[in-house]
């Protein structure tokens, strides 16, 4: 393990006094989009009286110095839970209140309170969102399979609660210290929250610890403990069903267990199982033992439970697994139809015990739904992270429960960060909060009121090692499951980024056509992130974003084409167009149009008018590509240098030029605008040059361009004005830039680090010299329009790359509104939007 960066806690932020909670009271939660939610304390002074309130704030792991406030609560926050999509945050307070906060228009800094559930007088022990029935397991043994569907099959899994037709319902479940189960459903109509409460056990139940996990048949497994090692760890299965408009909760007892330290026959704390490190003290400390932690290793698996029993200077961690025990009936109960009847009952089996001479402060299980694999030693190792009060961190194998890494926080820290004033000098500093990222490539911890991000895989010292092939598999899984891939880049070394991109591209080319159309934008966004994480590959990242936008526009344009007559034997217009453009080497656009049925390309005039900015982007992008051909020998790293030798890109551009020319006959206002210095037909001229370039690279990228094409491209800048390069190629160098900085990094909330300024200066070299015009206008990256130096309408900004876009739609076309909704949840780079 090694420290990747640390976020220091400043005394003041924007004239407001903030002080984080004591370490033992801090709550944190990390979403699948790598957004960290945490609690803090602020003091508001009114009439000379200090009123302490708790604030819930969030930050993006890629820009951790920028924080956004979610809510301000009058009492202490005891739990924070993100939903699976990372857009809703569930907050529980010490007074028994549950509140749901939802992102407004998917923006990080705009939140709406969706509703609340009042459980006054109850201590909320555990919270979980209801499962939606979608589960894609990660099996490292299938990395050599060709198709994504074989690598990441959808596991049969029932939703926790479903309505008519099996539609999963959105909601959450909570468990209190008195054994109450509260299930709340989120609905669109008033009231937005509908709750049901039921007792977990028919008898009185007192609990101080609880955790919730999901089962494959839709039930929820709840494990509870009253904190005494001599008491049983009671487990219950909760089933949910709908009767008309209300939720019905039914609970039944499941297999229970006793912790191993209580059932050891040899007696005394010193009697431990395997993986023990020896006793800590005698029988006096044994009387002070209590259950400090109780949680499932992974919430998607209810068969593995972690129980920690500890005292001030000792801890005992048990790992238990739920198995099916077979019982044979006596022969007197056998029947002729079933002569050998057997019954299976669940039973908890003890797997391992790990002891240490310090109390456990945090346990972080993997969030990735992994499966046992036979190649773990050579490439992929799922783990459980445990933090102790003496500063030790242990990484334990997910399935063998062996300690694979043992390190100290003091050894990892290489930063000069002042300690907390009220810190006991005689007590070692420790991690009070520990979370695994969704890919398990990183760990988020809180120590001395500072947030740490640890790189837990592929480090130079001790830690888990993952081969590049498994990093590619993780990236493909993130694209398939819809998770954010930022944390996976923690495992990627700078010298393997190009090989990983090539492997991603090779695997993508082996997928069926339908899968390629679905995953194209996600894979290009992943490659863009990989190139941005490398200091010398900014131009490749710009090429990936331009290619992403080009393919997406082409999909939309060809998707609205409809055949004149519906026939199962004929290809649709887009397929006919692709076949014609791939076979024909005709460079005259007018002649090529004679071989098409123009009637199949007719679209209503209003939609064509709304597409004009996208059509303009295609024309400008083509100008940049062709204008870069004469410069490639002198400037090898300019944007577009790789795309101009990509036959698939040139082929798509030729198809789009044919579509644009046909649409121009329907509505001339949709045609692109060119500032000309000559009388040539620019659209036809660009198509002719595209065809020449396409013929040069069609057989292979090693073929040099002919001299006539280079000369024509040299004269292109004198014939037509080429607009700003940044409108065609996103040249952001800020997103993912921390991966090529020398670490460990130090950040302070609200203060932009120095390397951001250096990255902004490095953007200047990426502009095509002498052939582009610069502009300082704000540019809408979604609609591809200029917004002026100051936009008249509200604008949103990407939290990572900084791209801007209007919040409200300005088009009346249904097709253009569908295009805008495509980017409603995230930017082209995959980052979150924020209100500016």
Describe the structure.
This protein is an alpha+beta fold and 836 residues long. Among the domains are: 122-330 and 347-357, no CATH class; 537-731, no CATH class; 776-836, no CATH class. It has 17 helices and 36 strands. The strands form nine sheets. Strands 2, 3, 4, 5, 6 and 7 form a six-stranded antiparallel β-sheet that branches. Strands 28-29-30-1-31 form a five-stranded mixed β-sheet, with no helix packed on it. A four-stranded antiparallel β-sheet has the order 8-9-10-11, with no helix packed on it. A hairpin with a 2-residue loop joins β2 (12-13) and β3. The radius of gyration is 30 Å and the shape is elongated. The model is unreliable at 11-19, 265-274, 276-285, 420-426 and 765-774 (pLDDT under 50).
List keywords for this structure.
836 residues, alpha+beta, 6-stranded antiparallel β-sheet, 5-stranded mixed β-sheet, 17 helices, elongated, repeat, nucleus, Mediator of RNA polymerase II transcription subunit 16
Topology, pairings included?
Layout: E1 2-8, E2 12-13, E3 16-19, E4 28-30, E5 35-46, E6 49-60, E7 63-73, E8 77-82, E9 88-93, E10 97-103, E11 111-118, E12 124-129, H1 148-151, E13 171-176, E14 180-186, E15 193-199, E16 209-214, E17 220-225, E18 234-243, E19 246-253, H2 260-263, H3 283-286, E20 290-298, E21 301-311, E22 314-328, E23 342-356, E24 360-364, E25 383-388, E26 392-397, E27 403-408, H4 409-412, E28 433-436, E29 442-447, E30 450-455, H5 468-481, H6 497-509, H7 513-532, H8 538-559, H9 573-583, H10 589-593, H11 605-610, H12 612-627, H13 647-666, H14 682-698, H15 707-719, E31 745-748, H16 754-762, E32 778-780, E33 785-788, E34 795-798, E35 804-806, H17 814-822, E36 833-835
Parallel strand pairs: 1-31
Antiparallel strand pairs: 1-30, 2-3, 3-5, 4-5, 5-6, 6-7, 8-9, 9-10, 10-11, 12-13, 13-14, 14-15, 16-17, 17-18, 18-19, 20-21, 21-22, 22-23, 24-25, 25-26, 26-27, 28-29, 29-30, 32-33, 34-35, 34-36
Helix pairs in contact: 5-6, 5-7, 6-7, 7-8, 8-13, 9-13, 12-14, 13-14
């Amino acid at each position: 393990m090694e420290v990747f960066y640390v976020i220091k806690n400043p005394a003041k932020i924007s004239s407001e006094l903030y002080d984080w909670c004591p370490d033992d009271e801090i709550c944190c939660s990390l979403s699948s989009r790598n957004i960290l939610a945490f609690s803090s304390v602020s003091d508001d002074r009114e009439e000379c009286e200090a009123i302490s309130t708790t604030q819930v704030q969030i930050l993006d792991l890629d820009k951790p110095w920028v924080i956004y406030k979610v809510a301000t609560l009058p009492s202490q926050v005891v739990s924070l839970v993100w939903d699976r999509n990372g857009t809703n945050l569930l907050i529980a307070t010490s007074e028994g209140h549950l509140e749901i906060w939802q992102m407004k228009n998917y923006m990080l800094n705009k939140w709406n309170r969706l509703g609340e559930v009042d459980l006054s007088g109850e201590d909320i022990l555990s919270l979980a969102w209801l499962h939606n029935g979608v589960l894609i397991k990660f099996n490292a043994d299938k990395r050599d399979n060709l198709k994504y569907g074989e690598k990441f099959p959808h596991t049969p899994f029932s939703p926790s609660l479903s309505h008519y037709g099996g539609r999963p319902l959105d909601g959450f479940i909570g468990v209190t210290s008195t054994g109450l189960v509260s299930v709340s459903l989120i609905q669109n109509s008033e009231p937005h929250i509908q709750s049901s409460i039921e007792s977990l056990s028919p008898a009185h139940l007192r609990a101080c610890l609880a955790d919730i996990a999901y089962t494959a048949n839709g039930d929820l497994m709840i494990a509870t403990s009253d904190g005494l090692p001599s008491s049983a760890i009671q487990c219950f299965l909760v089933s949910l069903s709908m009767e008309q408009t209300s939720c019905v909760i039914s609970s039944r007892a499941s297999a229970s267990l006793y912790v191993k330290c209580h059932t050891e026959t040899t007696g005394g704390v010193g009697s431990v199982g395997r993986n023990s490190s020896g006793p800590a003290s005698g029988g006096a400390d044994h009387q002070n033992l209590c259950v400090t932690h109780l949680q499932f290793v992974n919430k998607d698996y209810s068969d593995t439970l972690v129980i920690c029993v500890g005292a001030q200077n000792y801890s005992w961690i048990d790992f238990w697994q739920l198995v099916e025990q077979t019982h044979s009936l006596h022969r007197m109960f056998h029947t002729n139809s079933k002569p050998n009847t057997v019954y299976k009952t669940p039973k908890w089996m003890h797997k391992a015990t790990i002891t240490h001479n310090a109390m456990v402060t945090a346990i972080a299980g993997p969030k990735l739904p992994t499966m046992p694999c036979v190649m773990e030693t050579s490439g992929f190792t799922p783990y459980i992270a445990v933090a102790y009060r003496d500063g030790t961190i242990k990484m334990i194998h997910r399935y063998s429960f062996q300690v694979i890494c043992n390190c100290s926080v003091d050894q990892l820290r290489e930063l000069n960060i002042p300690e907390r004033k009220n810190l006991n000098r005689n007590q070692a500093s420790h991690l009070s909060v520990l979370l695994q990222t969704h890919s398990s490539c990183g760990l988020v911890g809180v120590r001395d009121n500072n947030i740490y991000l640890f790189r837990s895989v592929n480090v130079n010292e001790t830690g888990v090692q993952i081969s590049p092939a498994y990093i590619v598999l993780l990236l493909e899984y993130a694209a398939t499951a819809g998770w954010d891939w930022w944390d996976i880049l923690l495992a990627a070394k700078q010298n393997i980024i190009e090989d990983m991109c090539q492997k991603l591209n090779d695997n993508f080319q082996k997928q069926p056509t339908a899968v390629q159309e679905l995953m194209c934008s996600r894979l290009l966004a992943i490659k863009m992130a990989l190139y941005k994480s490398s200091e010398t590959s900014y131009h490749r990242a710009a090429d990936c974003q331009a290619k992403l936008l080009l393919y997406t526009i082409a999909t939309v344009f060809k998707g609205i084409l409809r055949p004149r007559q519906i026939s199962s034997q004929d290809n649709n217009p887009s397929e006919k167009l692709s076949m014609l453009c791939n076979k024909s080497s005709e460079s005259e656009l007018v002649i090529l149009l004679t071989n098409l049925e123009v009637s199949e390309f007719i679209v209503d005039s209003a939609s064509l008018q709304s597409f004009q900015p996208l059509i303009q982007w295609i024309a400008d992008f083509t100008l940049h590509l062709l204008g870069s051909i004469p410069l490639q020998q002198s400037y090898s790293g300019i944007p577009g240098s790789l795309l101009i030798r990509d036959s698939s890109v040139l082929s798509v551009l030729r198809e789009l030029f044919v579509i644009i020319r046909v649409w121009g006959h329907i509505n001339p206002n949709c045609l692109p605008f060119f500032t000309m210095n000559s009388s040539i037909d620019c659209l036809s001229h660009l198509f002719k040059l595209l065809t020449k370039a396409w013929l040069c690279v069609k057989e292979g990228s090693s073929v040099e361009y002919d001299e006539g094409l280079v000369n024509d491209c040299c004269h292109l800048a004198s014939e037509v004005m080429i607009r700003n390069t940044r409108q065609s190629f996103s040249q952001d160098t800020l997103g993912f830039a921390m991966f090529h900085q020398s670490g460990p990094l130090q950040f302070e909330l609200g203060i932009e680090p120095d390397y951001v300024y250096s990255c902004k200066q490095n953007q200047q070299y990426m502009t095509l010299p002498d052939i582009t015009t610069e502009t300082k206008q704000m540019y809408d990256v979604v609609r591809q329009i200029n917004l002026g130096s100051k936009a008249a309408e509200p604008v949103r900004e990407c939290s990572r790359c900084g791209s801007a876009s209007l919040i409200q739609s300005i088009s009346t076309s249904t097709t253009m509104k569908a295009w805008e909704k495509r980017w409603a949840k995230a930017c082209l780079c995959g980052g979150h939007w924020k209100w500016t």
